[in-house]
Amino acid sequence: MSRFSEIKDLILGLEGDFEKFYDKSNQAAGTRVRKGMQDLKNLAQDIRKEVQDKKNEG
């Protein structure tokens, strides 16, 4: 369940940058959002692989 916590923490950590980018048009925050979303994608891919491996173990 710690992997789920990692995802939640990552998303919550990006909340301020999302607000700055969308509400205040802060371009630097947009860069941080994009990096955070890439990290989220990579984390999700790792979790998918873990789940698949665990499922295939039996």
Strand content: under 5%
**What about the largest sheet?**
none
**Number of helical segments?**
2
The average pLDDT score comes to 96
Distance between the termini: 20 Å
Number of DSSP strand runs: 0
* Order of secondary-structure elements: HH
Helix content: over 70%
The shape is elongated
Coarse structural class: mainly alpha
Radius of gyration over C-alpha positions, nearest whole angstrom? 15 Å
How would you characterize this protein structure?
Helices cover 93% and strands 0% of the residues. It is an all-alpha fold.
Topology diagram in text:
Blueprint: H1 2-24, H2 27-57
Helix pairs in contact: 1-2
Can you give me a brief rundown of this structure?
The chain is mainly alpha-helical and 58 residues long.
Structural descriptors:
58 residues; mainly alpha; 2 helices
